[in-house]
């Protein structure tokens, strides 16, 4: 070929090899393009898409389940690359639970494609009770699988146990929660709120929460008598988690069912503080932060005046 190239450009051999080279070069480009397309699409055939989440402190998820299992029998965990979300109403459609666990809060998190896992929360809690508080938890599920696996590892890795649970098909409506500017926001110790709900439920089935510039008042009345607990905003406190902080735009007074508030306080072990957000004629929001991983919010519709239950 080199020798022919030394001939004049008008020679027949040069034109022949030039055409031949052009042909093989075009074939090469076609093969290269085909290979690139094949490699690009290869993962969709041979790569198993899956979900995996790892928590060094398995006790966190155990506390989360304990906080919602009395309100919800079953729910769907929606998993995406941003984290795990759960939203469901209780059977009476009076309260709503919204759980968000961010992906960056896990020690390891992988979600190749959006995945919805319908789970019986009671069964899941039974599995979580098999784990020691210092066990490392790993949750795994393959794409389109009908089961989810929970694996517990002891810190020294001398003991490893795994449990497989069947998933459920749950027809659940995902409700949009509108952004609301609340009239009053109360931040207080979660333990104090739990004690107030427990104490006042001894006096009646309903609790009145009233927020004014003087502070926040919790009240209940019934056949036994009546009870009132008032909290003023903390002026000076060494520890922020022990403070009572009130942000009030306008006064608000609402009545709620004690039994739901008591159920919400099961999230107390998750956070040292609770946030109550209130506005007239909209649901109360009771929020607990879950460390650096996320938060759980309970929404409770206020009771209408003269409502019996």
How would you sum up this structure, described in words?
This protein has 2 domains: 50-166, Proliferating Cell Nuclear Antigen (Box), CATH 3.70.10.10; 184-300, Proliferating Cell Nuclear Antigen (Box). The chain contains 7 helices and 18 strands. It has helices at residues 2-5, 12-41, 43-46, 59-68, 121-128, 190-200, 258-264; strands at residues 50-55, 74-80, 83-89, 95-102, 108-111, 115-120, 136-142, 147-153, 160-166, 184-189, 206-212, 215-221, 226-231, 245-248, 252-257, 273-278, 284-290, 294-300. The strands form 3 sheets. Strands 6-2-3-4-18-17-16-10-14 form a 9-stranded antiparallel β-sheet. 30% of the residues are buried.
Weakly predicted, low-confidence segments: 1-9, 42-46
Kindly report the CATH topology of the largest domain: Proliferating Cell Nuclear Antigen
Number of helices: 7
Rg estimate, integer Å:
30 Å
Quick summary:
The chain is an alpha+beta fold and 309 residues long. It is 24% helix and 37% strand.
Summary tags:
309 residues; alpha+beta; Proliferating Cell Nuclear Antigen; 2 domains; nine-stranded antiparallel sheet; five-stranded antiparallel sheet; disordered N terminus
Helices and strands in order:
Blueprint: H1 2-5, H2 12-41, H3 43-46, E1 50-55, H4 59-68, E2 74-80, E3 83-89, E4 95-102, E5 108-111, E6 115-120, H5 121-128, E7 136-142, E8 147-153, E9 160-166, E10 184-189, H6 190-200, E11 206-212, E12 215-221, E13 226-231, E14 245-248, E15 252-257, H7 258-264, E16 273-278, E17 284-290, E18 294-300
Antiparallel strand pairs: 1-5, 1-7, 2-3, 2-6, 3-4, 4-18, 7-8, 8-9, 10-14, 10-16, 11-12, 11-15, 12-13, 16-17, 17-18
Helix pairs in contact: 4-5
């Amino acid at each position: 070929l080199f020798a022919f190239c030394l001939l004049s450009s008008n020679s027949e051999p040069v034109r022949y090899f030039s055409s031949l080279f052009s042909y093989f070069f075009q074939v090469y480009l076609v093969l290269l393009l085909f290979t690139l397309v094949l490699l690009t699409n290869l993962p969709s055939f041979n790569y198993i898409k899956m979900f995996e989440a790892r928590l060094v402190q398995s006790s966190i998820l155990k506390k989360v389940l304990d906080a919602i299992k009395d309100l919800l029998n079953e729910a769907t965990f929606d998993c995406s690359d941003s984290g795990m979300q759960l939203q469901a109403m209780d059977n009476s459609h009076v309260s709503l639970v919204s759980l968000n666990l961010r992906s960056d809060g896990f020690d390891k998190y992988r979600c190749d494609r959006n995945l919805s896992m319908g789970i019986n929360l009671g069964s899941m809690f039974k599995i979580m009770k098999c784990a020691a508080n210092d066990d490392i938890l790993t949750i795994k599920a393959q794409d389109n699988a009908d089961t989810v696996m929970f694996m517990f590892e002891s810190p020294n890795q001398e003991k490893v146990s795994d449990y497989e649970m069947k998933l459920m098909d749950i027809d659940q409506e995902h409700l949009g929660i509108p952004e609301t500017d609340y009239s009053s926001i109360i931040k207080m110790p979660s333990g104090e709120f739990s004690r107030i709900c427990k104490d006042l439920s001894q006096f009646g089935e309903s609790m009145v929460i009233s927020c004014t510039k003087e502070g926040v008042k919790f009240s209940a009345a019934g056949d036994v008598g009546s009870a009132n607990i008032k909290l003023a905003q903390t002026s000076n406190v060494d520890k922020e988690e022990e403070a009572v902080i009130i942000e009030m735009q306008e006064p608000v007074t609402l009545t709620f069912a004690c039994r739901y508030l008591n159920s919400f306080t099961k999230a107390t072990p998750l956070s040292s503080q609770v946030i109550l957000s209130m506005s007239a004629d909209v649901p109360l929001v009771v929020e607990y932060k879950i460390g650096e991983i996320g938060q759980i919010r309970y929404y409770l519709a206020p009771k209408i005046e003269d409502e019996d239950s």
